[in-house]
Write a structure and sequence with these properties.
The structure is a single chain. By secondary structure, this protein is of the alpha/beta class. The chain has one domain: 3-Layer(aba) Sandwich (Rossmann fold), CATH 3.40.50.2300. The protein contains 9 helices and 5 strands, in the order H-E-H-E-H-E-H-E-H-E-H-H-H-H. Strands 2-1-3-4-5 form a 5-stranded parallel β-sheet, sandwiched between helices. Helix 3 packs parallel to helix 4. The longest helix is centred in the C-terminal third of the chain and has 16 residues.
Amino acid sequence: MDPNKIILGKRVLIVDDEIDVLGVLVDLLDLCKIDTATSFEKAKKLLDRYHYDVIILDIMGVKGFDLLAIAKKKDIPALMLTAHAFSEESLRKSVEQGAAYFVPKPEIGQIATFVADVLDAKEKKENPWVRWFDKLGNIMDSAFTGPNWRERQKEFLEKVRRGD
């Protein structure tokens, strides 16, 4: 899969209260048509005005989960981007509330691939979380105190993989 071919010309909304993070994401996704917002209010106005192929949401600072609910109603796949809310609980909440991907900010350099995963999975009517496990599962093992987090969350993770 060539991520650049998949993301080329896609309309993306990026919402984060950190200007430097927005700048990095804009640079990394320069093949896309991008709008940015640093607040919930501005993002909501943009969502009311335009259609987006995908949305990237910071969890903290911009009411990311509230924006996720709006994106879900509009059938816009959302990637949750987080540094401070990088926890099993935030992952679970992201999945349960309809996010398509959960990206720790240290992995921001791969954002084009992650966006492409979500868009490609949506087009093929596949579960993007399967790709997420392949790409980020090992990172979660170390971040969530080892592979035993998978055992603690076994039933939930099996549902995620099945797309329930």
